[in-house]
């Protein structure tokens, strides 16, 4: 819904929240359900209302537990029955500088301020540890906004007794904790409040009248920033940018003005703006976001523009370049298909409002931010938080490379008439084995991102995955696949639960970038081998249909399983007897963990 | 701004905030008359009214306003 995308009108959202919620809930879209506990050190009523709207818009339907006013610490440390039975999927701790127990006094010594700091950190760390013990779910913790006044003025920043200094010190310690603990994230209200303006943010009447830690008009900004973390944790990030060229990546029209006539580089003011934007996009790409081009241009001109010596993005930086005169929505559909990702994983950037309108109308799930002034492009793309990074795996950094290797494979495939010969020529080597701790982030990430080749679409949080990893009643397999063109990284995950002499396959997923490479056979071989070793007799597979996983509807049938049941919703259950199982993989050399 | 115009605009604000197109307020309307008008919604109402008329209530006014009539008096004096 446009009203919930950056830059949204916060006052409008606050005023119309009820009718917006009604509209969202009746729009017929399928949402994942998540239980979120909000433990507040100040009033959380409208924070929950706004968070709910943004999450519904991201395809997440939240149920909330709300702690009694300022009972966050007690709820977390001592627990309570209601929260226990709620069994949250995520806990958000909403504290602010109003919750700092005690600030240094101007008469304190350095040692005394150190002690105060240690005491304050102990207070929070105790709570975080209790939560980790009791709830095994991701935690989002606010850091602190800057103080409303500075007793010593600028000295407050560097004197250990200054509130600014004390708060910055706490924020660093919070950051250190988050950096060293899985599934613990900081909601950076220090940044958000700075963007909003700390004078307005901290307007005291909202605290004294309602015990809100921030002014109410700022709540939508706050909630949007929080929602970005939540949707990222639950796998709802965007994956790729689709970029227009003329007046988006450079000033002017390359077809009309010629390569020498477009504005990019340090020569003109606008040229500088576009240069900076290209550099920004290069940084976005480095985080693992895929870049593509969709431009109404002759390809020759498009490439010439991208090869402009002052531009920092080169044709090589893009996985797909669609430069032609077809309608953009058609090209964007082709890009989604070509990358094997959903249209809802795309962000389309174009300076032309008419193109944006057509794409929005034809492809409603593609994000299409308003790109009005080139000098605002970076802010609009950045603040929209399309690519909020919570987990960071080394595969993210290599994604662009891997997709490009795929393009080379496709070209090579065209030279073979026999598909088996082609697979043989790839010289594939797979590693298939039990999970290793270092791979847990990537494995978890895959469970949250894979939609098409995913039989049960079961999502895991990091904490849940750690529990699976620690539990002997599971047979776990990850698979990575390399070939002569490069390493695809971890591309498949299977989790089976042992029940008596049966193995129930809770999860079977594979990245679509290795589709039709027989990797699924190699995984099945390993799974059956392990199941046999444990003395099991039967393997049971489950297929739960979603809007996106039709591809694997008959996977178990193809594997030689027998369908044993199917319900009205199309959920199917399949069985395979392990006796006499013959390995199916012919082309992949399989190795174990080294 | 006439009192009538203020009431018309206020009705619109109330209807939006409480998502109920049947609401019509008058000088005597209080929180007891509108089901969802509790202390937490009061702040949204106040913010929406401020937004509508481009004014800011003082903190003391927000906590002491007893009915819609008092709100209108302040709007009249300031908008």
Give an overview in words.
The complex is a heterodimer of chains A (594) and B (79). Chain A is α/β, with parallel strands linked by helices and 594 residues long. Chain A folds into 3 domains: 2-233, SGNH hydrolase (Rossmann fold), CATH 3.40.50.1110; 240-383, Rossmann fold; 405-591, Gcn5-related N-acetyltransferase (GNAT) (Aminopeptidase, 3-Layer(aba) Sandwich), CATH 3.40.630.30. In chain A, 41% of the residues lie in helices and 18% in strands. Chain A has helices at 10-25, 45-57, 72-78, 81-86, 110-135, 163-179, 189-196, 198-201, 205-210, 219-233, 254-257, 269-286, 299-306, 328-339, 353-362, 377-383, 394-413, 419-425, 440-449, 462-470, 519-533, 555-559; strands spanning 32-40, 60-66, 90-94, 139-142, 184-187, 240-243, 290-296, 320-324, 346-349, 428-433, 474-483, 486-499, 502-510, 538-543, 562-566, 572-577, 588-591. In chain A, strands 15-16-14-13-12-11-10-17 form an 8-stranded mixed β-sheet, sandwiched between helices. In chain A, a hairpin with a 5-residue loop joins strand 15 and strand 16. In chain A, helix 1 crosses helix 2 (45-57) and helix 5 packs parallel to helix 6. The longest helix of chain A has 26 residues, at 110-135. The mean pLDDT of chain A is 93. Chain B has 79 residues and is mostly helical. Chain B has one domain (3-78): ACP-like (Non-ribosomal Peptide Synthetase Peptidyl Carrier Protein, Chain A, Orthogonal Bundle), CATH 1.10.1200.10. Helix content of chain B is 61%, strand content 0%. Chain B contains 4 helices and no strands. In chain B, helix 1 (3-18) packs across helix 2. Chain B starts with a helix and ends with a helix. Classes of the chains: A alpha/beta (594), B mainly alpha (79). The A-B interface holds A 11, 14-19, 22, 43, 45-46, 205-206, 208-210, 212, 216-217 and B 13, 16-19, 39-40, 43-44, 47-48, 51, 59, 62-63.
